[in-house]
Structure formats: C-alpha cells, structure tokens
Amino acid sequence: MKKLSTGCHWQKIIAYIALLTWLLLMMFSFWWFHFRYLHAASSIEGWVMFQQDHIQLTLDHPTHQPTLVHFFDVDCPCSRFVTADIKQLIDFSAEQAQVKILVPRLDDIPKVHGIFGQQVTVLLAEVKPVAAPAAWLVNTEGETVYLGPYSDSGICRSDSNHLVGEMLADLLLGKEIERYNHLTTGCFCSWPT
Fold first, then answer.
1. Less Cβ crowding at N or C end of the chain, within 10 Å?
2. Is 113 left (phi over 0), alpha (psi -120 to 50) or beta?
3. pTM for this one?
4. 47, 52, 57: which is closest to 130 by C-alpha?
5. Cβ pair 127, 102 in contact under 8 A
6. Does residue 132 contact residue 76 with C-beta atoms inside 8 Å?
7. H-type helices in the chain, by residue range?
C-alpha cells in the first residue's frame, strides 16, 4: 500500500476547508437574502397586504387607455428581478396603454430613464404603496383592477404565464377584470418614506 506524501495530505485538507468555507458562505448568503427580501407582505409589522382601496390614481385627463403604473425603487435589490418584465410590458403595450413608473425620490428619475429609456413617463410617487416592486393596473375608467406583485412566484420571471401581462392583454381586448386584493410572498422592499 502506497503512503500519501505529507504535502498531498495537507493539500486535500486545505481543499476540503476551502470547499466547506465556500458552502457555508453560500448558505449564509441565501439565508440573508431570504430573510431580508423574501417575506409575506402581511407578516411584517406595519405592512398590510396589497389592497386597492388604500390607493387611488388621479388621472390628469381621461385617456381611454389602460394604465400600468410600476412602483420602482432603484435602491431595492428586488427591482432587478422585474426590470426585464417591465421592458417587455412597455414594448407589448406600445401605443395601446400608458405605462408610468413611480419612484420614491426625485433623484431616481434620471436613473430610471437610464434603465428604461426616455420614452417612459417617470414621476415622483405621490402615493405610497405597501412595497416595491409592485404593479398597479388601472382600466380605462380609472378604476383599479390589480395592485400587487408582477408574478405569483418569489421572483418575477419573463414567460408567457406572466400575471400582469395577461391582465394587461385582457384589458386591451376589452375584457372585464375582477378587482381583488393580493396577499403574497416574494422579494419586496419597504417603500422609502
């Protein structure tokens, strides 16, 4: 039987320690992300579920188009999960619907224009949502038909089963959408005060 050299033995021990350290760091990272950003909106003190009755859209003038309002906080790490979805919805709705992005701070407006382009209406939010990122869908009469996350999963994904995209498509076809409140779990940040 051949004996391992002392140098080879220590290399294996160092490799196992490095692997174990890496695994522990990855576990801690996922744990930190989960407890910091993935949570049920109603389980945190001071938060409520997404409720349409607590928020109203003031239309400057009747548009006769559905309106998609997106609450976007540049400083929220969760916002990166919906950026691709918002871009898709902007391209999808084009001339058929209004898309507005509301931000919590005035200095966020140029940053959001840099992300989504100059053609998008970016405004300082006069209303305070429960959390960000969030979608607010309003029909042609100015009535809320949806307020909540972009998808029912923990993070948003770009696919054909997109909750907000489906509702926007239905509105563009003239279909009625039932209003409902939305209690969810996912990646959210408190809206800055």
1. N
2. alpha
3. 0.68
4. 47
5. yes
6. yes
7. 6-37, 83-93, 108-116, 163-172
